[in-house]
Amino acid sequence: MITLGEIVLIHDLKRQGLSVSAIARKLGMDRKTVRKHLEVGISAPGYSPRANHPRLIAPYEDYLRARITAWTTCRASGCCAN
């Protein structure tokens, strides 16, 4: 994620006469990222929260919890090896 300070720095370095490649090297960014922010101008980056997706493990959670409980009970009573 890029900060507003980095965007301002990109524009300052461009005003100083550095090329897009030189700016990218200096800031450790991709040239396309630098070029994009030079085209857009100085504006605060807008990030929105990601949409919630169902967890892949959700259908198996009850089974896994039961297995973990059974395993810990077995371990505590000493009936299992390892």
The whole-number mean of residue pLDDT values reads 90
Proportion of strand residues: under 5%
By oligomeric state, this entry counts as single chain
Q: What value does the Rg take, in angstroms?
A: 26 Å
Major sheet summary line:
none
Low-pLDDT segments, ≥5 res: none
Structural class label: mainly alpha
Morphology: elongated
Order of helices and strands: HHHH
Number of strands: 0
What proportion of the residues is helical, as a percent range?
Answer: 55-70%
Terminal Cα span: 45 Å
Count of DSSP H/I helices: 4
Would you give an account of this structure?
The chain is 57% helix and 0% strand. It contains four helices and no strands. The chain starts with a helix and ends in a 5-residue tail after the last helix. The mean pLDDT is 90.
Which descriptors apply to this entry?
single chain, 82 residues, mainly alpha, 4 helices, elongated
How are the secondary structure elements laid out?
Elements: H1 4-15, H2 20-27, H3 31-40, H4 61-77
Helix pairs in contact: 2-3
Write a brief structural summary.
This protein has 82 residues and is mainly alpha-helical. It is built from four helices and no strands. It is elongated and about 75 Å long.
